[in-house]
Amino acid sequence: MIYLDNNASTRPAPEVLAAMTQCQQNHWANPAARHAAGQAASRLLEQARAQLAQLLNGKPRQVVFTSGATEANVQVLHGLTPRDAGGEPPLLLMSGIEHAAFLKAAQLREAQGLLRLQLLPVDAQGRVSLDAAQALIRPGVQLVSVMAANNETGVLQPIAEIAALCRAAGALLHVDATQIVGRLPFDFTGSGADLASLSAHKLHGPKGIGALLLRENLAWPALLPGAQERGRRGGTANLPAIVGFGVAAQLAGQNLSEAALRQAHLRDAFEAQLAARLPLRVFGADVPRLPNTSCLRIGALHADAVLGRLERGGLIAASGAACSSGGQQASHVLRAMNVAEAEAQGALRFSLSRDTSAEDIAAALQIMGEALAPLAQAA
Ligand code: PMP
Hints:
Layout (H helix, E strand, L loop, with lengths): L1 E2 L10 H13 L9 H20 L7 E4 L2 H10 L12 E5 L4 H12 L4 E5 L9 H7 L4 E5 L13 H11 L2 E5 L11 H4 L3 E5 L10 E5 L13 H4 L7 H15 L2 H22 L2 E3 L10 E6 L4 H11 L1 E2 L15 H5 L4 H4 L3 E4 L6 H21 L1
Parallel strand pairs: 1-11, 3-4, 3-5, 5-6, 6-7
Antiparallel strand pairs: 2-8, 7-8, 9-10, 10-12
Helix pairs in contact: 1-9, 2-9, 3-4, 10-14, 11-14
The structure holds 4'-deoxy-4'-aminopyridoxal-5'-phosphate (PMP).
Protein name: Cysteine desulfurase
Family: Belongs to the class-V pyridoxal-phosphate-dependent aminotransferase family. NifS/IscS subfamily.
Catalytic activity: (sulfur carrier)-H + L-cysteine = (sulfur carrier)-SH + L-alanine
């Protein structure tokens, strides 16, 4: 099987699995306990925190472990100050292409009167429009949330420019860094973000573990109150997963730029060879993208028809976000980019990982050629 759905989830690295098993077998004591076994577990917890902080150029005490990026994102919403200076619910600006679960959580709070929500539009390439950002990021906005890289198109967002606008307006900036971490360098301290979210399973770590990063001295209320994580996230730490996350972060930091270049090269060759054979439209092709992601449409083919054929041939890919696929509506990301509904229904996402080889890409192209020849003639 050729697996090109790494933006949905990646294969845990063997070193991650080994460290997790070791931890389950030997360090099952509660890391909050005072006895020696608990203290040994606590040292592993702090080692993982340091490994993650190092990858993100942050400090260990800035890392709060959560159950994943979804929880970290919701904790961001939960921590907004309930009333602004004028006594109104907080004003939140979010890009219209944030992760579907995050948008849903914000919309739910808006419907409950807990916040006021404005969406930042994106251009036809899927990048947050800086003109719109300049007009909308103004005094009175409490928090701006823009992801570093989009999960469907891979398009990188202008975080540095948005951070400068936030600073000038006195607004906090939250960056969902889930898709960028482990694929390109992400410097939390240098990014200008006050908060960031991420998830281990996108960087060859385990599922069900993620982190919220907090700027130094930024107090942020817990979503789950309790003593753990310096009072910022209650509940017994999921130590095996955290240990796996730490190892995954350490591995991701080794040869990160080299791995990114290699994936970009394979991805570009994949797109070029497909374009030579089939009528192709690549979404976000004209702006900087993650090196591993290709979101494209082949002729007028519907994604479901293509994906079924590819899977039977041994190639796994996705249509838009795994989180929104299954529904009949086209992806909110492509709709925000003003892609026509019929075109968006054809969007396929191929996402590589550092494990993807040139042979995998050659095999994927062969499978696509064979599976799509009859359809492409009809298209
Ligand atoms: N944000 C982005 C940008 C994502 O791609 C994802 C995963 N699809 C999430 C958040 C949610 O992460 P998790 O699975 O850890 O809850």
